[in-house]
Amino acid sequence: MSWTEHAPILIIAAPLLVSFAIPLLEKIDYRVRNAAAVLSLAFSVWMVLIVLHKIWGSGPVVYVFGAKSAFLPLPSGFKFPVRIMLEIDNMSAFMALSGSIAAMVGVIYSWAFVREEEGGLGKYYSLFLLMAVGMLGMELTGDAFNFFVFLEIASIASFGLIAYRREDPASIEASFKYMIVSTIGAIFVLVAIGFLYGRYDALNMAYIAKHMRIGIVERIAFVLLMVSLAMKAGAVPMHMWVSDAYGRAPAAVTATLVSVSQASLYGLFRVMFSMFGVTMNNHFGGWMLIIFGLLSMFIGVTMAIVQKDIKRLMAYHAISQTGYMLLGVGVGLAVLDNPVALRSYGLAAMTGGIFHIMNHAMYKGLLFLTAGAIFYRLRTFNLNEMGGLARKMKYTTIYFIIGAAAIAGLPPFNGFASKLMIYESVYKFNPLLSVVAMVVSILTLASFVKVFHSAFLGPEISKTRDVREVPKSMVIGMGIMAVICILFGLFPGMVVKYLAGPAAVSLANQTGYISSVIGGGM
Amino acid sequence: MFYDIHYVTIVFLIALGIYAVMFQHNLIKIAIGIDILESGANLLLIVLGYRNGGVAPIFTMAPQGKSMVLPTPQALTLTAIVIGLATTALMLSLIVMLYRHYGTLDTREIRRLRG
Amino acid sequence: MWTYIFTGSGFWNPIWWLASFVIVAIFVYSFFGSEVKAKYSPDKVKPFLSGWDEVNKDAMQVKASNIYWGFTKAMSGYYRFLDRCHTGIINDYVVWFMAVMVITFIAFITA
């Protein structure tokens, strides 16, 4: 028995401990505080890698709190899953890897980005780590109620962080709007979990999935969970909070907030595939995801193209890119009960959608960070007041080009690999869908050409005369994401083989998910 | 006779909360609406675990010949109440700050972010 | 196998792409790279200004709002519709959310 047996819980515990220790560490020195925050998240990344290695070796990892088994045997011999547990399969580990890297980069970037004189930095780092804890918890848990609790932890921490620049009325407004919509969504998730508990007397997702039979209560719970989580992931037409919240949060927070929304997306996929799966009408669920995906892609990108605020523009692109993930995975869900179609293109579509999740976390994080770098020097988000920044901020410009090329799907960056997978596999399902996806990709390129032209190209204008390159920690933070974008673009085969491919397979395999908790015998 | 009265109450509370958030333009009323919505959800959890004449859930196994109220929903409700408290506190403080910045509580005027 | 992925109906290999990119780049450079470069001098710009003074640098930059003016003009009906949907009022956000939930539910029950 080695300590790595406890790696699953350490992923969550390390940032949680440090987040509450930060007020104490701050008394020593601000450098100790920042270093502790960075190290705790780096430790999480390491633990995720250990867990991932274990999963490659011996299948999904189940970690039960305080006991060996999640089940409590009753005197009658009936076994009942009462204990809280983490269940980590390839999909969860994939999401946790992407999320923990994004959070770590966010903290590294914050070191210089959030200045001491803005005040409240201890609280900023505490909330940042709590947000990361909530996100990782959502991705790792195997318990429906725990999912809700982590969802609320991540949401409440992010409300605070979005309103961090409290002298700016718009950021308070953005935080308030996000809070109202998000709280209602979370309450619906809770009600749905209550319904399922009332039917199955259990909160364990695998147990509920095993005993799932379809009645009116399950249908209501299904719709509540699907729509609420789609809203939290930012699907059109419930996307308005995304552009407000992403546009107004500090850039480092936004880069991580992308991953937090993806944790809700993960929850949506988990509910649709592992909990309901083919028992529920999977054509309906799949087509709902496809419709959400199409609307998100198209409306997101057309709204983005007319924006004048650089971060709001990128926020609309975040909505549009979420559409690709919904489309890819939705096609997989729609053909889930058809093994031939699933093998010939369904799994490829799901792999593309899941691969896109991590790519998006990286390149969109990178783009938000470059927007933050511009804000750091110019103190404005308005594209009309920018120009000629390429002459002044060399690293930021290069990083922006990498991010923009990746999001627009230019080879050989990572966005191209996952988008190509989505186009070519969705084409076999329905050609029209991939046509829309390609048109959206072109519009994405067009709107990033606009940003690049108006912010970075052109002559040096009076506003940008004494702009300098941003401090080192911000350059390093952006650099990590840029390197990942390039590596994933050059070696997509490795990513698909070890990360995205197995994740898609484990998501599609409902019986595998159930039996990893309940065991083959029961 | 009124066997399902608690479910009716839950539906009523949730509908009332949603109505307030959808159609009331005053921020404080929206906050109240969210609180009512939360109470509806909490009541649902409590009702799910209630057994007529059951004892309090303080034993591992129910005592002989008696039924026991389910312990899990009560734990869930406690957690949900705490989360609701945190949300309400944060929401009210945001409303205070919004009022300071905008000088109004009307949602139709607090819309600097749009389009 | 490090770079190859199967995409459902085809494949993608960035190394091949990079290789062909390099080959084309060398090809293009060997044909056009030896072209004589014109030397820049301020006098050469003058014919294009038609005797006017050079405009202020700030005014020369095409502003972000003016890029794609034609596109937004052509699509103005669509954008007016989108603007009506994105009111920025929190009540409307919730109305959209609830409307989607009700529609989904009705569709699901009847499907």
How would you characterize the overall build of this protein?
The complex is a heterotrimer of chains A (522), B (115) and C (111). With 522 residues, chain A is mainly α. Chain A is built from 19 helices and four strands. Chain A has helices spanning 7-28, 30-58, 90-113, 121-140, 144-162, 169-200, 205-210, 216-233, 240-248, 251-276, 282-305, 310-334, 339-378, 394-408, 414-429, 431-456, 472-490, 492-508, 510-518; strands spanning 61-64, 71-73, 79-81, 85-88. Chain A has a two-stranded antiparallel ribbon with strand order 1-4. A two-stranded antiparallel sheet of chain A has the order 2-3. In chain A, strand 2 and strand 3 (79-81) form a beta hairpin. The longest helix of chain A has 40 residues, at 339-378. Chain A is globular. The two termini of chain A are 27 Å apart. Chain B has one domain: Helix Hairpins, CATH 1.10.287. The radius of gyration of chain B is 19 Å and the shape is elongated. Chain B starts with a helix and ends in a 13-residue tail after the last helix. The two termini of chain C are 44 Å apart. Chain C is flat and about 70 Å long. The model of chain C has no long low-confidence stretch (mean pLDDT 86). With 111 residues, chain C is mostly helical. Chain C has a domain at 42-110. Chains in contact: A-B, A-C, B-C.
State the main characteristics.
heterotrimer, B: 115 residues, mainly alpha, Helix Hairpins, 64% helix, 0% strand, elongated, C: 111 residues, two-stranded antiparallel ribbon
Q: How is this structure best summarized?
A:
Chain B has 115 residues and is mostly helical. Chain B is built from three helices and no strands.
**Quaternary structure state of the chains depicted:** heterotrimer
Please tell me the overall pLDDT of chain C: 86
How is the CATH topology of chain B named?
Helix Hairpins
SSE arrangement of chain C, N to C: EEHHHHHH
Unreliable parts of chain B: none
- Report the portion of residues of chain C in β strands: under 5%
DSSP strand content of chain B? under 5%
Largest beta sheet of chain B, briefly?
none
Rg of Cα set of chain C: 28 Å
Per the principal axes of the C-alpha atoms, what is the gross shape of chain C?
A: flat
- In CATH terms, what is the architecture of chain B? Orthogonal Bundle
Write the layout of secondary structure elements.
The complex is a heterotrimer of chains A (522), B (115) and C (111).
Chain A: H1 7-28, H2 30-58, E1 61-64, E2 71-73, E3 79-81, E4 85-88, H3 90-113, H4 121-140, H5 144-162, H6 169-200, H7 205-210, H8 216-233, H9 240-248, H10 251-276, H11 282-305, H12 310-334, H13 339-378, H14 394-408, H15 414-429, H16 431-456, H17 472-490, H18 492-508, H19 510-518
Antiparallel strand pairs in A: 1-4, 2-3
Helix pairs in contact in A: 1-2, 1-4, 2-3, 2-4, 3-4, 3-10, 3-13, 3-17, 3-18, 4-5, 4-10, 5-6, 5-10, 6-8, 6-9, 8-10, 9-10, 9-12, 10-12, 10-13, 11-12, 11-16, 12-13, 12-15, 12-16, 13-14, 13-15, 13-17, 13-18, 14-16, 14-17, 15-16, 15-17
Chain B: H1 5-23, H2 27-49, H3 71-102
Helix pairs in contact in B: 1-2, 2-3
Chain C: E1 5-6, E2 11-12, H1 14-32, H2 42-49, H3 57-60, H4 69-74, H5 76-85, H6 90-110
Antiparallel strand pairs in C: 1-2
